[in-house]
Write a structure and sequence with these properties.
Helices cover 38% and strands 22% of the residues. It has one domain: Rossmann fold. It is α/β, with parallel strands linked by helices and 214 residues long.
């Protein structure tokens, strides 16, 4: 179980809807926490940006968006540029928890998810993000064999109640406007999973071992 003494959490994601898909249930389960969502891409997207802020109201969160390159070609970005973009947007304060993407992504494959997950771990290790713990999304899709599912042996693996899941699903379908047959709607997890790190060195070791495997 997550420690109920937590009071503040920052969620660092690539796109508007990532905050709902991968951690929306956790946010809905803890409405009294101070949630802040950093979304690195789509600030100037006239469709998705307004929906992002409507979603935050449903999630009882505040947030900010950036305009990181997110073109269809998904050209890799410079590591330093990504770190600088995160630092520019994130509030200069201490958080109890950071939540972010997996450096291996949640599905095969979106480079921005992977780059942001790695950058957050590096920034936390260098103490350029101040937080007590780091939670990394834990999902996989069997190399596109199926829609993303939670990693069963992740540190935390929480099944949402029907009520909470429906609230999250409604944000995806009614606020973001994804059709019930869309990938996003079909992929909205009933179970949310995370890798949990309280130690920066262990997070770095985990990151380095994953990079060797990739």
């Amino acid at each position: 179980m997550i420690n109920e003494d937590y009071k503040s959490a920052v969620v660092i994601v690539a796109h508007p809807d990532d905050e709902t898909l991968w951690i929306g249930g956790e946010m809905l389960l803890h409405p009294n926490w101070n949630w802040f969502v950093v979304c690195l891409c789509r600030k100037n997207d006239n469709d998705r940006a307004p929906k992002f802020y409507k979603a935050l109201k449903e999630l009882n969160a505040e947030g900010i968006m950036g305009d990181m390159n997110d073109g269809p070609e998904q050209t890799p970005l410079d590591e330093t540029d990504i770190e600088n973009a995160i630092q520019k947007l994130i509030p200069k304060k201490h958080f109890d928890i950071i939540y972010t993407h997996n450096p291996s992504g949640e599905y095969t494959r979106h480079i921005r998810h992977e780059e942001i997950g790695k950058a957050v771990i590096l920034l936390w290790n260098k103490e350029k993000i101040s937080a007590g713990e780091l939670f990394v999304f834990a999902y996989e899709d069997g190399n596109r064999a199926y829609n993303p599912i939670p990693v069963l042996n992740a540190t935390l693996n929480n099944t949402l109640t029907k009520e909470v899941w429906l609230h999250k699903y409604n944000i995806i379908t009614k606020i973001y406007g994804f059709d019930k047959d869309s990938w996003e709607a079909k992929s909205t997890p009933v179970n949310e999973a995370f890798w949990r790190f309280s130690n920066k060195a262990k997070a770095m070791q985990w990151l380095e071992n994953r990079e060797i495997l990739i």
